[in-house]
Amino acid sequence: MDIGAWLRSLGFEQYEPAFRDNHIDGEVLRRLTGEDLRELGVSSIGHRRRLLDAIATLGAETPAAPGSAAPVLADAERRHLSVMFCDLVGSTELSARLDPEDLREVIAAYHRAVTETVGSFDGFVAKYMGDGVLA
To answer: Most buried by CB count within 10 Å: which residue of 80, 105, 107, 108?
Structure first.
């Protein structure tokens, strides 16, 4: 990404030397904060806000493959998201009664059952945490 051209397209060519001197490239640009912009010499709140808004629009672009002409904008999609955390009730008592290998088998069976149930609703398990499941 040509940062200088991007700045010029926004009318902020005066900041080009600071961005160049601080090695701001396309990857770093997407992670800049208001404080970073202040350190780069963007003292105007309005300019910082406009730059941050312009940076946010860059986040919607997917990176171009090497040799391709231009990045493609990702289509925005709004959809419902359900998050569930569940754990095995009584696992602490089970851990006191069962051999560790047997407890591991019980928890593994529980994980398999939860994964199958979540999958039947087109969901997926994001993380297993001990006897807990985040789906």
So the answer is: 107
